[in-house]
Amino acid sequence: xxxxSSNEARTHWAELLDxxxxxxxxxxxxGRTVAVLVDPDFYERxxxxxxxxxxxxxxxxxxxxNEPLISHEELRRELGLDP
Length: 83
Known about the structure:
Blueprint: E1 2-5, H1 6-11, H2 13-19, E2 25-29, E3 32-37, H3 40-64, H4 72-78
Parallel strand pairs: 1-2
Antiparallel strand pairs: 2-3
């Protein structure tokens, strides 16, 4: 992980963009991280992982739901998929 100030980031923007391929770059302002530059592939994988985690949490919650279960055939009839 690399750290730089917002002023340095402005001055060395092209270099930072090159460095992002190998490590994340934290941009700080007044001692606080205000942004993190990451490789686009890493960003996409991270977003996918978060979405997968949300889906798993929703599936677990649905399993714990106390709603009555219906059969596949009943569901098809309810949705109008069976004549």
